[in-house]
Amino acid sequence: MKKMKVLIIDDEKIFRDEISDFLKTRDYTVLSADKPSVGLNFLETEAIEIVILDIDLPEMSGIDVLKIIKEKYPEIEVIMITGFGNMRIVINALRLGAFDFFPKPFKLINIQASIERTAKFVKMRKKLIQSEKNLFLVSKELQSKTDSRIIGESKAIKSIINLMAKIAKSDKTNVLITGESGTGKELVARGIHYLSNRKNHYFYDVNCSAVPETLFESEFFGHKKGAFTGAIENKTGWFEIADKGSLFLDEIGDLQMNLQTKFLRVLEQNKIRKVGSNKDIEIDVRIIAATNRDLQELIQEKKFRADLFYRFSTFVIHIPPLRERKEDIPILINYFVAKFSKEMKRKIPTIDRDVTHKLNNYSFPGNIRELKNIVEQAIILCDGDSLQIEHFPILNSAQLNNDPQSEVKKINNFDLNFNIDQLEKRIILEALSEANYDKSKVINLLNISRQSFTRRLEKYGIKI
Question: Which residues are CB-neighbours of 459 under 8 A, at least 6 positions away?
């Protein structure tokens, strides 16, 4: 680990040497100066992180040196020392940005404590600066490539951003992204790709649950003309398309067992063979997989290969659901309000405090995707300059006596007793919410007659 570099500016040699020897035994790199001009020259040529600065100096006072340091090198922390116990000077130094202050004569144990406090602060600030830098880079790349951003100030999001930046530096490391639907797994995958050296090559996304078993090899590996009935021309597979780039495999937990074996072989050999060909093609593809399922549980149920899991999960990023990082909700609301207002060429409306409060306490089973849809719908429904509770049907529905929102939640968690009636009731409840309980709109959405709609309301005891 890189040693922290400390500069001592003090005209008394005995103090300089005593502090310097003490710090060197504690693994600091130490430079010394007997006057401000020498010390300021060090600051121009060395990556100094902490300055121990005497108040009473030749050439100029320590307070003047402090002013120069804070003006030219604001990232450097300064510890002031003095042989005078003047509180006015102490207060002035702290106001000018000194991190700590103690008088001569001092015990080395006291200066050690001060240095350690300052060092911890410097490291913390570096992490914060790096985190903000990473967030800026990720957001900039995603904004330019996909018109999307990763939004959030929570500790979880900052940690994910930092992991993305670190993973991106390792070109060949496969990544597994876990999290509920709607948490932004694809956005994180794209961020890793666009931060890496692969960013100028293809990012190809595939939904594994949508690939038919009969087309698996043809789609992933490609085929030669005439390889099978209907193969009227050569086809390039997804692995070859993503060569030198990234292949994003969404819903990897839905990949059938017999197909997992074929996938494993490619990951082990970094080669593919087109259907109908007898030649191998070498590929250089980073695999980024995502799932909302528990792969360890699937392994126990013998529905997912353990060896494939370990191939995918060299590095795992878990995205927590929105309900577990509520501090991100207001930021996301403001972002989507501004985004959709701009797209619809509307003045950005204010948001009623009651709306923000209720959204903060809503569970968001659909996570960020649901929040995005809720805000877009509210902007459409809003005719004025303020978003009110009536513009958010999902919040209104939870207040009805029949509490259809809780019904939807119960149905979302259906078990083996699930039946067609439950599904039909769920569709009606969600259509009502979507249409803000306007009967005519609901009938159009469901494409049924008014009589049929009325009968279903009576059947399921839904009151509107």
Answer: none
